[in-house]
C-alpha cells in the first residue's frame, strides 16, 4: 500500500511539473484592445456628444435615453457601425462631387453626361453592405423584441447621436448630405425626415411669405392679408416628387416607393443584407439597364440622353443660323 501511494505521489509530481507555471503577479490582466487613430477620435467624440445629449434631454422631452443606451455607446458594435458609416459616407461624397464636376464640364462642352464606373458602384455597394452587417449585429445584440416602443426609442436615439457624431468629421456643406443619407439608410426614402426638412427650408427661403413662424396675434391684420394675397402666386410644394428625385444610380437600394408602399418596406441597410423578392427585382432591373446602356443597338433612352440630344440639336441649329446670317451679310456687302 505504501509503495502504491508513493508511486501515485510521484505521478502527481511529474504531471504537475509539466503544467505551465503561473506567476502570482497583481499586475497581470487581459491584453488591452488597440484602437486606430480614427477609432480613438470616435470614442472621444462619443463621450462629448453623449454629455451634450444629456443636456438636450432636459429641453427636448421627446428625446429618450434608456439605461442600457450608455452601455451600448461603449460597445464594439456601435464603434463598428460608426466606422462603417463614416467610410461609406466619405466615399459617397467623393463620388458625388466628382460626378457633379464632370456633369458641369459636359454641359459646357456639350458632351454626353458621364456614367458611373463599375468599380465605383461595386465599392459603394460593398461599403454599404459592411454598414448593413454592422447594423444587423446591433439589432441582434441590442434590439428589444418584447417592447416595441422601447426598441423604437433606442434606435431613434442611436440615429440622433450618429448624426451629431458625424458633424465633427464633415464640412458644413457635406454634413447636410450626410444627415440625409444616414436617415435614408435607416428610415427609407419616404421617411427621410432630414431631407424633408431641408426641402421645406429651401422652399421657405425661396418664398418667405410661406413661413408661419411669426406670431399672428402681434402682427397687424393688414400684413396678414398681404401675406395671404402673396401666397396665391406661390407654386405648391410637391414633396413626394422631390423626395424621390435623387441620383439613384450612385446610392444603393434607392427604391422609389409610394407612402403606402414604403410603410411596408424595409430600410436599405436591412434590404442589402436580406433582400425581399421586390428588392431583388429592383437590383436585377438596375443591372439589366446598365448592361443595355453598355451594349449598343436599339434601346430605350434615358432622360439624360434625351436632354443631351435636344441640346446638341439646338447647338447645331444655332450654328446654322449664324452661318446663314454670315452668308447673308457677305452677299449684301457684294451688292
UniProtKB/TrEMBL annotation:
InterPro entries: Pro_pase_1_reg_su_36. One of its GO terms (molecular function) is phosphatase binding. Pfam families: PPPI_inhib. This is Uncharacterized protein. It comes from Tetrahymena thermophila (strain SB210).
Amino acid at each position: 500500500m505504501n509503495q502504491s501511494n508513493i508511486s501515485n505521489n510521484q505521478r502527481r509530481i511529474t504531471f504537475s511539473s509539466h503544467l505551465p507555471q503561473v506567476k502570482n503577479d497583481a499586475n497581470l490582466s487581459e491584453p488591452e484592445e488597440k484602437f486606430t487613430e480614427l477609432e480613438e477620435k470616435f470614442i472621444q467624440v462619443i463621450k462629448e456628444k453623449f454629455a451634450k445629449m444629456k443636456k438636450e434631454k432636459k429641453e427636448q422631452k421627446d428625446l429618450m435615453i434608456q439605461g442600457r443606451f450608455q452601455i451600448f455607446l461603449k460597445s464594439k458594435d456601435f464603434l463598428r457601425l460608426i466606422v462603417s458609416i463614416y467610410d461609406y459616407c466619405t466615399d459617397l461624397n467623393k463620388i458625388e462631387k466628382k460626378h457633379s464636376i464632370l456633369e458641369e464640364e459636359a454641359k459646357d462642352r456639350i458632351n454626353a453626361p458621364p456614367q458611373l464606373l463599375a468599380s465605383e458602384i461595386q465599392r459603394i455597394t460593398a461599403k454599404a453592405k459592411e454598414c448593413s452587417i454592422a447594423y444587423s449585429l446591433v439589432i441582434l445584440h441590442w434590439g428589444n423584441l418584447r417592447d416595441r416602443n422601447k426598441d423604437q426609442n433606442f434606435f431613434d436615439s442611436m440615429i440622433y447621436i450618429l448624426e451629431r457624431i458625424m458633424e465633427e468629421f464633415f464640412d458644413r456643406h457635406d454634413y447636410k448630405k450626410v444627415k440625409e443619407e444616414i436617415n435614408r439608410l435607416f428610415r427609407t426614402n419616404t421617411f427621410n425626415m432630414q431631407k424633408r426638412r431641408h426641402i421645406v427650408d429651401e422652399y421657405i427661403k425661396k418664398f418667405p411669405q410661406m413661413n408661419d413662424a411669426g406670431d399672428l396675434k402681434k402682427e397687424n391684420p393688414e400684413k396678414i392679408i398681404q401675406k395671404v394675397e402673396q401666397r396665391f402666386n406661390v407654386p405648391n410644394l410637391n414633396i413626394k416628387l422631390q423626395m424621390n428625385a435623387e441620383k439613384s444610380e450612385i446610392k444603393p437600394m434607392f427604391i422609389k416607393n409610394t407612402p403606402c408602399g414604403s410603410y411596408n418596406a424595409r430600410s436599405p441597410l436591412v434590404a442589402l443584407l436580406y433582400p425581399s423578392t421586390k428588392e431583388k427585382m429592383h437590383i436585377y432591373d438596375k443591372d439589366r439597364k446598365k448592361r443595355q446602356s453598355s451594349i449598343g443597338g436599339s434601346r430605350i433612352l434615358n432622360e439624360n440622353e434625351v436632354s443631351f440630344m435636344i441640346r446638341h440639336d439646338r447647338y447645331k441649329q444655332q450654328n446654322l443660323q449664324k452661318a446663314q446670317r454670315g452668308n447673308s451679310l457677305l452677299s449684301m456687302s457684294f451688292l
